Amino acid sequence: MSDLYSQAGVDVEAGDRAVELMKAAVARTQGAQVLGGVGGFAGLWDASDLLTYRKPLLATSTDGVGTKVALAQRLDKHDTIGIDLVGMVVDDIVVTGATPLFMTDYIACGRVVPERIAAIVAGIARGCEETGTALVGGETAEHPGLLDPDEYDVAGAATGVVEADRVLGPDRVRDGDVLLALASSGLHANGYSLVRHVLATTRWDLGEHHADLGRTLGEELLEPTRLYTRPCLDLTDNVTVHAYTHVTGGGLASNLARVLPPGLVADVARESWVVPPVFQLLARGAGSDMAALEGTLNLGVGMVAVLPASEVQAATARLALAGVAAWELGTVRVETPDDVTHHALVSGTKGVRGGAVLMHGEYRTS
C-alpha cells in the first residue's frame, strides 16, 4: 500500500522520519501537565490546575504567518518561521490577559523533506519554550499536485486561561489613559505580499549587505517576530494595564481601534519614535511615504499597552528589564463632534464597533 501511495507522490516513511527528528525539540516544551507523547491522535493536557481559578475563561486563537513563508523558501532557511507562528498565535491570546497553556501546529507541504519539517517545528518549539506554551501536537500533510515540492504553509492554534474578572479589553479603557508602545523586532509576519511586490519591482538582491540594516536584506526580512508573552504577562501581574493590542495585519491604527470602547479616541503621535531602517527602505522601494505603509506594516510598533498615566514609569522600567524598548505613543480621550468628520479617523475595523484612532504628525526617520 505504501508503494502505491508513494507513486501518488506521498512519502509516508519521510513523514515518520520527520517526526523522529522533531521529537526532542517538542519534548522541551512539555511539562508535567502534558500526557502521552508525540504521535497520538490528540494531545492531552492535565487541566487540574484550573481548579484553583474562581471562574476560569479559556482564550483561543488560530493564525498563520502569511506569505513570509515564501521568503523562507526562497532563502532556504526554515528554522525561524515557527517563531513567527507562535508570535502570531500566542500573543493574540495574551492581549486578553490570558496565560497560554498549549498549542498545536499544522504544516502542509508539497513534499515531506524530514530535515526541513524538523527545522520548522524546531522553530515552533523554540517559540513555545520562550512563551511557556506546551506544544502538545500537530500535523504534517503532504499535498503533491496541490503544492509544489518545495512549497509549504504553516498554521497553528493555541489555548490560554484567564480569570473572568481579570480579562483585559475595551471596557477597562478610560479617558486619559496612555498608549505605551512596545518596539517590534522588524516586520514580524504581516505585509509580506507588499514586501514581495517591492522585491519584484526593485529586483533587490536578498543577499546584499545593507549598512543601515547591519546585515543582508534577506536576514532582515526573516527576522523572527518578537514574542511579547512573558513581558506583557509580567506587566499585567505588577502594574495596572487596561488593554493590549497586538499590531498585526492592518497596522497600528486599525488594531488599536479594536481595543477602545465607543466614544473614546486614541491620539497617536507619529513623531514619538524613529521608524526603523527596514521600513524606510521598503517605503523608498515602493515609491511612497511612510504614512502610506501604516495600514499594512507595523513601522516599529509591535504591541501597545493601554494603561493609566500613573503606571507608565513603572511599566517602562519593567519592559526595559525584559529587553523591550517602550515609549509613550499617545493618549486616549473623549470623542468630539469634529472627530467624526475627520478624514484620517480609523474605526470599525475587523467587524468591531469600538473606538477610534487619529494618527498625527510626521514620521521621523532619524
Topology diagram in text:
Blueprint: H1 2-7, H2 12-27, E1 34-35, E2 44-45, E3 56-64, H3 68-75, H4 81-94, E4 99-109, H5 114-131, E5 134-142, E6 152-163, E7 178-183, H6 192-202, E8 209-210, E9 215-216, H7 217-221, H8 229-238, E10 243-246, H9 251-257, E11 264-269, H10 277-286, E12 301-307, H11 312-321, E13 326-334, H12 337-340, E14 346-347, E15 356-360
Parallel strand pairs: 4-5, 11-15
Antiparallel strand pairs: 1-2, 3-6, 4-6, 7-12, 7-13, 8-9, 10-12, 11-13, 14-15
Describe the fold and architecture.
By secondary structure, the protein is an alpha+beta fold. It folds into two domains: 11-163, 2-Layer Sandwich (60s Ribosomal Protein L30, Chain: A); 170-360, PurM-like C-terminal domain (Phosphoribosyl-aminoimidazole Synthetase, Chain A, domain 2). 33% of the residues lie in helices and 24% in strands. It contains twelve helices and 15 strands. It has helices at 2-7, 12-27, 68-75, 81-94, 114-131, 192-202, 217-221, 229-238, 251-257, 277-286, 312-321, 337-340; strands spanning 34-35, 44-45, 56-64, 99-109, 134-142, 152-163, 178-183, 209-210, 215-216, 243-246, 264-269, 301-307, 326-334, 346-347, 356-360. A seven-stranded mixed β-sheet has the order 10-12-7-13-11-15-14, with helices on both faces. It has a four-stranded mixed β-sheet with strand order 3-6-4-5, covered by helices on one side. Helix 5 links the parallel strand 4 (99-109) and strand 5 (134-142). The longest helix is centred in the middle third of the chain and has 18 residues, at 114-131. The chain is globular and about 70 Å long. Keywords: ATP-binding, Cytoplasm, Ligase, Nucleotide-binding, Purine biosynthesis. GO terms for molecular function: ATP binding; phosphoribosylamine-glycine ligase activity; phosphoribosylformylglycinamidine cyclo-ligase activity. Residues 174-335 form the PurM-like C-terminal domain. Belongs to the AIR synthase family. It is an enzyme of class 6 (ligase).
